[in-house]
Specification:
By secondary structure, this protein is mainly α. Helix content is 85%, strand content 0%. It is built from three helices and no strands.
Length: 130
């Protein structure tokens, strides 16, 4: 028994040539059928892979969208908190400045300053100074 490359192929060809005409026709018909089956199997595999990739892409996109939405919500909440804190601090500072101006106005009024002088120095309207 030889093990050289190509020996198996030569043996198959030799066996084919040894067949009579009817055997060759049946063998050829069988091989055509097998090639057709293999082709259908290969096509089905290829179609299955294509569908699988498409489904995988769609699932990946959906997961990506959901993750993006979640990240966006979290970022939005964080930005909202920061903006709220900033506005709250600004409002508190403004209120404190306004309150301090009124305290200064009251002290200046006790020292005898006129409402016009106090308004000029503190920025408070003369209507607010009593």
């Amino acid at each position: 028994e030889f093990n050289a490359p190509g020996i198996g192929s030569l043996k198959e060809k030799f066996d084919y040539l040894k067949m009579d005409e009817d055997e060759r026709r049946r063998f050829d018909k069988h091989m055509d059928y097998m090639r057709s089956e293999w082709g259908m199997i290969a096509s089905a595999r290829q179609e299955g892979r294509k569908e699988g990739r498409q489904e995988g892409r769609e699932e990946g996109r959906q997961e990506g969208r959901e993750e993006g939405r979640q990240e966006g919500r979290e970022e939005g909440r964080q930005e909202g908190r920061e903006e709220g804190m900033q506005k709250g601090m600004q409002k508190g500072i403004q209120k404190g400045v306004h309150q301090k101006a009124h305290e200064i106005a009251a002290m200046l009024r006790q020292k005898g300053w006129s409402a016009e002088q106090i308004a000029e120095v503190t920025g408070i309207s003369t209507d607010e100074i009593s």
